[in-house]
Structures are given as structure tokens and as C-alpha cells.
Write a structure and sequence with these properties.
mainly alpha; about 0% strand
Length: about 180
């Protein structure tokens, strides 16, 4: 199937792997960010006062939001996010930008409540920074196996379909024999 799709220009695009890697790393970083939210009391403020939902529902929404933010991270930084030395810094900056955007963009959409103050407010900042650093730090390590797995999958199907026909060395009738000229 991959050979057929590649023959028609439907190979894995430049966004497929970074988006998936971003979503995975965003989800993985949601747990430590959630722990920071919990430790500062910011999770209780988010669940009880801002979202006004049960804590399990609020936790699921926050995990989904962090996963979507990871997808956005992959979309924004793409292959630049693969920098193993500077990825954490990309992530920290991205987490800071998200923290700044949350009260302005997201909060008015979901609640009339203003953003938290004091220790919970510090927890929100710390959680976004922790999430960003972990997302940026893990991204290259999650992206590389996805890249290798998709490439290996494509190589396995190289002998089938239109792609296989394009490669003469795979076809038994078109293969050159020793001493044979074309």
C-alpha cells in the first residue's frame, strides 16, 4: 500500500512525523506538568474555579490540551525541534508563550473567572515551563524512532507496486546479468 501511495506522491510528508512526535511528547510531558500543577495547588483552581468540572474530567482535558500543544509544537518547529542540544530551550520558550496566551485566549472562552493569583499562578507558570522543557528535550528521541520506523516500513514494500516496477534491480526480468549490456 505504501508503494502505491508513494507512486502518486502520497509519501509521508514533512509534517507527518513532527506532528505525531509532538503529540506523543506533549502527552508524555503532561504528567510532570500535572504534578507541578498539583504541587502548587493550581490544579484545584483550574478544576474547581476555572473549568468547574470534576477533577478527573479536568485532568483529562488538561492532558488533551497538553497533547494538542505538543502537536502545535511539532507544527511550529518541525525539523528544528530535533536539536538535541537546544530542544529544551525551544520547548521552554514555547511553554512560556503558551502560558502567556492561556489567560488571554483560552480562559475567556471557557470561564468568566480571572486567572489564579499567588502560589497557584506560580504553579501555572512552572507547569508550562516544565512541560515545555520536557517536550523540547524528548522530541528528538521520540521523533527519531518514528522516522526510522516509517522509513523501514517503506523499504519493506519497495519491491511491490509501482515503486517496485520503477526499480529495475528488483524485477527478475529486468535485472542485469553479469556481462550483459543495456
Amino acid at each position: 500500500m505504501m508503494g502505491f501511495l508513494q507512486a502518486h506522491g502520497m509519501d509521508a510528508g514533512p509534517l507527518q512525523r513532527p506532528l505525531l512526535a509532538g503529540a506523543i511528547t506533549g502527552l508524555l510531558a503532561a504528567a510532570p506538568a500535572g504534578a507541578v500543577l498539583w504541587a502548587f495547588g493550581a490544579f484545584a483552581v483550574a478544576a474547581d474555579e476555572v473549568m468547574r468540572l470534576s477533577r478527573p474530567t479536568s485532568a483529562a482535558i488538561l492532558a488533551a490540551a497538553f497533547t494538542a500543544a505538543g502537536l502545535l509544537y511539532g507544527l511550529v518547529f518541525r525539523r528544528a525541534a530535533n536539536d538535541k542540544l537546544g530542544g529544551w530551550l525551544f520547548g521552554a520558550v514555547f511553554g512560556f508563550v503558551l502560558w502567556m496566551a492561556a489567560p488571554v485566549v483560552v480562559l475567556p472562552l471557557i470561564s468568566a473567572h480571572t486567572m489564579a493569583a499567588g502560589r497557584p499562578a506560580q504553579g501555572f507558570l512552572a507547569a508550562f515551563l516544565v512541560w515545555g522543557v520536557i517536550t523540547g528535550g524528548l522530541f528528538p528521541y521520540v521523533h527519531k524512532p518514528l522516522h526510522a520506523q516509517m522509513d523501514g516500513h517503506q523499504r519493506a514494500f519497495a519491491r511491490l507496486g509501482p515503486t517496485g516496477a520503477a526499480h529495475h534491480h528488483h524485477h527478475p526480468l529486468l535485472r542485469r546479468r553479469p556481462g550483459q549490456r543495456r
